């Protein structure tokens, strides 16, 4: 949901905006062939593009979900937060703060983002990796959305970024699965954010935002740090840190929920 909200808001992607962008609408197979050519021109190997795009089909469920998403934040803050932050999730977050204390200390020192914010985001996005992080092939999802003309430039960029994740060796194609707008991993990064902010914090040579807790939390911290989040400063509505979290999610209600959850984790 997080990264989908950025997509709806017109998030600027790493690989988007090419003057030679494939034309949306029309024959889907022709569109996919154009995207394959564009990906190879951007440095993605023919073996990756062929494996990823050969036989890919449109997904009607993705388009239906896309049309419904505009109503996500029609609740009041009180209504919304009551459905997202309960005693079980707070207690679970506090337990993980203890379990990962050493890791979170290293991340705080390197990126200057407080652990309570990171664990709050982790809890909201995937129930700390235990919840649904998506079961849909990312390439099929993004090809469907890119072919649709509503935000084709955005999702063409995301599709190219997804192919670059495979090209870099961060995730194999079989593991490139995600949610309804192509969000990947335990804190739901769009592929362009994966490429731009992903951090190999466990030192295994890959950025793995599906399985590696160190990579997940450090990459989340890197995104916030890169957009101006400052350690030791308030993060409530109207603050500079609250504004820095726009890169995470532009919806005010969602950022307020992050702050509320972080406060509860900190015992406030």
Automatic annotation (TrEMBL):
Domain of life: Bacteria
Key words, A-Z: Signal
Sequence ranges assigned to domain Transglycosylase SLT in this UniProt record: 28-236
Stretch forming the signal peptide: 1-21
Pfam family, one: SLT_2
UniProt cross-references to InterPro entries, sorted A to Z: Lysozyme-like_dom_sf, MltB-like, MltB_2, SLT_2
A GO MF label: peptidoglycan lytic transglycosylase activity
GO biological process: peptidoglycan catabolic process
Residues annotated as transmembrane: none
SUPFAM superfamilies linked: Lysozyme-like
PANTHER family in UniProt: LYTIC MUREIN TRANSGLYCOSYLASE, MEMBRANE-BOUND LYTIC MUREIN TRANSGLYCOSYLASE B
NCBIfam families named in the record: MltB_2
Protein name per Swiss-Prot or TrEMBL: Transglycosylase SLT domain-containing protein
Source organism of the structure: Bradyrhizobium cosmicum
Organism classification: Bacteria, Pseudomonadati, Pseudomonadota, Alphaproteobacteria, Hyphomicrobiales
């Amino acid at each position: 949901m997080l990264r989908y909200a950025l997509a709806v808001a017109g998030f600027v992607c790493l690989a988007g905006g090419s003057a030679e962008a494939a034309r949306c609408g029309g024959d889907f197979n022709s569109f996919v062939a154009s995207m394959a050519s564009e990906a190879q021109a951007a440095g993605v190997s023919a073996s990756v593009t062929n494996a990823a795009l050969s036989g890919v089909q449109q997904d009607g469920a993705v388009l239906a979900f896309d049309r419904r998403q505009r109503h996500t934040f029609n609740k009041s803050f009180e209504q919304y937060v009551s459905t997202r932050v309960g005693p079980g999730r707070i207690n679970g977050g506090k337990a993980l703060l203890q379990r990962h204390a050493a890791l979170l200390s290293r991340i705080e020192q390197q990126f200057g983002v407080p652990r309570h914010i990171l664990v709050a985001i982790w809890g909201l996005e995937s129930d700390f990796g235990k919840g649904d992080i998506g079961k849909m092939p990312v390439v099929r999802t993004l090809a469907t959305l890119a072919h649709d003309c509503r935000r084709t430039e955005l999702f063409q960029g995301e599709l190219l970024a997804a192919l670059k994740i495979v090209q870099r060796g961060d995730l194999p194609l079989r593991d490139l699965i995600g949610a309804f707008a192509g969000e990947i991993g335990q804190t739901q990064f769009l592929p362009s954010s994966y490429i731009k902010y992903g951090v190999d914090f466990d030192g295994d040579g890959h950025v793995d935002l599906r399985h590696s807790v160190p990579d997940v939390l450090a990459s989340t911290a890197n995104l916030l740090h890169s957009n101006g989040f400052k350690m030791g400063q308030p993060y409530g509505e109207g603050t500079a840190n609250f504004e820095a979290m726009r890169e995470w999610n532009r919806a005010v209600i969602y950022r307020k929920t992050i702050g509320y959850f972080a406060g509860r984790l900190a015992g406030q």
